[in-house]
Amino acid sequence: MPGICFFRTYKFSILQIWNKYRYQFMSSAPPIKFAIADDHKIFRDGIKMALSARPHLKLIWEAQDGKDMMHKLALKKPDLLLLDIRMPELDGINALPLIRTENPDIKIVVLSMYDDQEMVSKMMEMGANAYLTKTTDPNEIYNAILTCMNEDFYFNDLVNQAVLLKLNHKKNIRQFYPNPVKFNEKELQILKLLAEDKTTDEISQEVFLSPRTVETIRQNMKNKVGAKTIAGLIVYGMRNKLLD
Description:
Layout: H1 9-25, E1 32-37, H2 41-51, E2 57-63, H3 66-75, E3 80-83, H4 92-102, E4 107-112, H5 117-126, E5 130-133, H6 138-151, H7 157-170, H8 185-195, H9 200-207, H10 211-225, H11 230-239
Parallel strand pairs: 1-2, 1-3, 3-4, 4-5
């Protein structure tokens, strides 16, 4: 099974360029207010320095542990939070569902030393919009911030591989979970094929429908769940156990 990549290379390059200059063209747009929660001051300082010259970003606070973060969240809400996993008082794993419950609109980009796919999958299912390692290039961190603000989710190779691993691990297991949006059997089949990085033509051959019909079904599924992109549709499938 081929590795999945929700943005083909040429599309990804165009997206990077567009995201890089989008806010420069929109001079009247308010800056993206972001915050950093990490217990390592050296790392926080490095992130601040790396992002300080980027257009349309404004750091509004930083937190040194989970308790400090929750206190500052209650006082001043950012548009986006850069969240570490391992922190004293309250770690990112336990904080994430609390943040999601109280602040569903805040975009959360996990920045962690951990790159194991099980952790990536867990954090994305719990509500993260992106997952990056702390060795990620500042340009990609900036691109992830803009992509999350514009399209809700940022999918890199790490997240793609985690989704694929989950599909491979669960493909022979049938489980049932409550789901607020009902997909029919054909829609679920198309959703899983999308997660396997199948093209429209490949999907049409597997489900015995025309490419145009597949595109229509895909768009209807995005409309049902309120997803802006295929990545958002896949994340919805992950969080509602539809890819199991």
